[in-house]
Amino acid sequence: MLFQLDEELIFPDPHLGEPDGLLALGGDLSVDRLLLAYSHGIFPWYSFRQADILWYCPMQRFVIFPDEIHISHSMRTLMRKNLYRMSINENFSEVIHQCSVCDGRYEIDGAWLGDDMINAYTELHRQGFAASVEVWEGERLVGGLYGVNIGRAFFGESMFSLVPSGSKLALIHLATFMREHSGTIIDCQFETPHLRSMGGRFIPYNEYMDWLKESF
């Protein structure tokens, strides 16, 4: 069932959504609505060229637990070379910009990271609820990711690479940081071979919510 949202700050029970996770349309991208959404595993995902915001909440959640991050032999070899420097929140605005335009993403019909989304997550970042991880080659930003951080949970939104394995380095740095600071779970939203190779796996929504409640 697909629900129409209005100005009221509320979401329907995620168990009532469509099989693909589509739950609702409409509403806005205000900080309060986004925080309410993410605290229940709901996230916006829609083409910015269409009229309505679409909200998803899959019942099988693809996640990475920081303790389970897989670092391949080739990645360990790359990391030992110290070619790149990793940081957190040094340049959120450039990370989200690169996530929008890298590899021609902005030009495709289904592109979702438009100005409204960028402005919404930039405001989340300004208020301390979104973070970026950067990968630097000298002074050049060559990889990174950003997402929403609430309590000890991180909800990944997008990543980019301008060099081979740039986004992998960012994800490893994020998982390492979370492990060292009692972080609990990284929500990957959707499965990709890239994320599965790094330790991603599915868990049921109810188990996922147990993790979130522990994280907040």
Describe the structure.
This protein has seven helices and eleven strands. By secondary structure, it is of the alpha+beta class. The strands form two sheets. A seven-stranded mixed β-sheet has the order 6-7-8-9-10-5-11, sandwiched between helices. A four-stranded mixed β-sheet has the order 1-2-4-3. The protein is globular and about 50 Å long. 37% of the residues are buried.
How many whole angstroms does the radius of gyration measure?
Answer: 17 Å
Shape type: globular
> Quick check: average pLDDT?
95
Straight-line distance between termini: 29 Å
User: Treating each run of at least 4 consecutive H or I residues as one helix, how many helices?
Assistant: 7
Question: Which stretches are poorly predicted, pLDDT < 50 over at least 5 residues?
Answer: none
Helix content: 25-40%
Give, in order, the helices and strands: EEHEEEHEHHEEEHEHEH
How would a crystallographer describe the biggest sheet?
A: 7 strands, mixed
Number of strands: 11
Strand order of the largest sheet: 6-7-8-9-10-5-11
Beta-strand proportion: 25-35%
What class would the helix/strand composition place it in?
alpha+beta
List strands and helices in order, with pairings.
Layout: E1 3-5, E2 22-26, H1 31-38, E3 43-44, E4 54-56, E5 60-64, H2 73-80, E6 85-88, H3 92-101, H4 115-126, E7 130-137, E8 140-150, E9 153-161, H5 166-180, E10 185-187, H6 193-196, E11 201-204, H7 205-215
Parallel strand pairs: 1-2, 9-10
Antiparallel strand pairs: 2-4, 3-4, 5-10, 5-11, 6-7, 7-8, 8-9
